Amino acid sequence: MIVVKVGGAEGNDIDNVLIDLAPRRDYVLVHGGSNEVDRLAEALGRPTRYITSPSGVVSRYTDKETMEVFTMALAGKMNTAIVARLQALGAPAVGLSGVDGGLLTGRRKEAVRAVDNGRVLLVKDDHYGIVEQVNASLIQLLFDAGYVPVISPPGVTPQGELINADADRVAAQIAVAMKAETLVLFTNVPGLLREPSDPTTLIPEVARDRITFFMNFAYGRMKKKLIAAQEALEGGVRRVVIASSQHPDPVERALEGMGTVIA
What is the rounded CA–CA span in Å between residue 124 and residue 11? Predict the structure, then answer.
């Protein structure tokens, strides 16, 4: 089994991934939708804000109102559109949010550290959370019935509170829970780059024990992909591939090692 995560940032070609996945029956698809969240937030008069942690990780600031937009965009519009497209391509897809059946349960962070003009602040009204448990039996039930699961955040706490869980890290947790052999994290660049603006500086391989060092070459959301890769490998996943979704047959290319392979 493989777990595939495709993001929703500008430049990702989700349709390439769906076309390549459609004939397969050995995968779980996890998706984000950052660009769609931004568009919907802007249309509703709630422009997106981002916060940066002291380590340089960029996250969406998710207050109560933004959490509503996040849920509408991902669990509503994006998930439904992806499932409809896969079904049109012949795949028996079933869409789930992390809330359905307690699929992704975790905890909301009481406070998030953020850097603002050189000062470290504690943000206490952010709904960012960490997934701690995956209902793998629900995913397996769908597999056994011949369906393809398509999963998106949000997650949920045991108290029923929605949490904004990062989709890369969600995919890692699902890969661990399902004992996947490979986790593929698609993005809009060829992989981890030494120079973010130069696609020719691809780093083709990263040893598991060197992930911390290679964080120095990760900017913005790429840091979260390396964090997700580390969590997946520590949980027993054999390899993680960070690859571009912009080429035809992106899944096959990634499984052949075209991208950054972390093992």
Answer: 32
161 burial type by CB count under 10 A (0-12 exposed, 13-18 middle, 19+ buried): middle
Q: Would the pLDDT of 131 be above 80?
A: yes
d(CA 21, CA 27): 8
What DSSP state is assigned to residue 220? T
Q: Are 187 and 7 in contact (CB under 8 A)?
A: yes
> Which of 119, 98, 102, 120 lies closest to 111, judged by CA?
120
In sequence order, which residues have a C-beta less than 8 Å from that of residue 33 and are 6 or more positions away? Answer: 8, 73, 74, 77, 78, 152
Beta-bridge partners for 86: none
Instruction: Tell me the three state secondary structure of residue 172.
Output: helix
What does pTM read for this prediction?
0.92
* 198 to 132, 202, 247: CA distances (angstroms): 36, 8, 17
Beta bridge partners of 34: none
Fold annotation for 2-44+62-104+131-262? Carbamate kinase (3.40.1160)
Task: Summarize pLDDT for 82-115 with one digit per residue, the tens.
Answer: 999 999 999 999 999 999 999 999 998 877 777 8
- The amino acid sitting at 123 is V
Residue carrying the six token digits 């249309």:
43
Cβ(184)–Cβ(3) under 8 Å? yes
Q: How far apart are the first and last CA of the chain?
A: 16
Q: Sketch the domain layout of the chain as residue ranges.
A: 2-44+62-104+131-262
Q: How many CA atoms lie within 13 A of 150 on its CB side?
A: 28
Query: Side-chain half-sphere of 177: how many Cα atoms within 13 Å?
Result: 20
